[in-house]
Write a structure and sequence with these properties.
single chain; mainly alpha; two-stranded parallel ribbon; 7 helices; 2 strands; 5% strand
Length: 165
């Protein structure tokens, strides 16, 4: 408490990830420290708690009622996926289409994980093209399902461009 207190000047915000896994006792202690020391407390995690007792649910509801602001990050948009792709040096309209489809059907974390794996395969040299994305997906546990989804979307887009027969 002395370390986090005002005695040492303004403190930086404390960011706590995966807070939904904390026990009510730990959450209460974090909030007590925050109130006593006056630092910003940022809790990040999923909106759903892991299984717990009914008593835990009541205690956590009481604690969460004291949280000042909430921000929920929903599914990634196409624009989110494109921006993340640009940061990871993705190249080609087909590659951007693939990562947008993947990202919009998974999560930001999954998309970044995919692109980080693709970048590791290229040793950081060159760009990430569709064949690299497909190869990386084949090595992932969900790869087959995702590749089917990517190809179905690509075929549907091609059919849309051709128009009615």
């Amino acid at each position: 408490m002395n370390f986090l207190g005002a005695r040492y000047g303004p403190t930086r915000p404390l960011l706590v990830d995966e807070y939904q896994n904390f026990t009510p006792t730990v959450l209460r202690e974090l909030l007590h420290l925050q109130e006593r020391c006056g630092f910003a407390l940022l809790l990040a995690g999923n909106t759903h708690r892991l299984a717990g007792t009914r008593r835990d649910t009541h205690a956590v509801d009481q604690i969460e009622s004291r949280i000042g602001m909430r921000f929920e990050i929903g599914q990634p948009t196409r624009e989110d996926c494109v921006r993340i792709g640009a940061e990871h040096n993705v190249e080609g309209a087909d590659a951007y289409e693939a990562i947008a489809t993947y990202g919009q059907n998974t999560s930001l974390r999954a998309l970044c994980h995919l692109l980080q794996n693709c970048a590791a395969d290229t040793s950081g040299l060159g760009s990430i093209r569709l064949p690299r994305i497909e190869t990386t997906l084949r090595g992932m546990s969900c790869g087959g399902d995702v590749l089917r989804l990517l190809h179905e979307r690509r075929n549907a887009a091609a059919d849309d461009l051709r128009g009615p027969a």
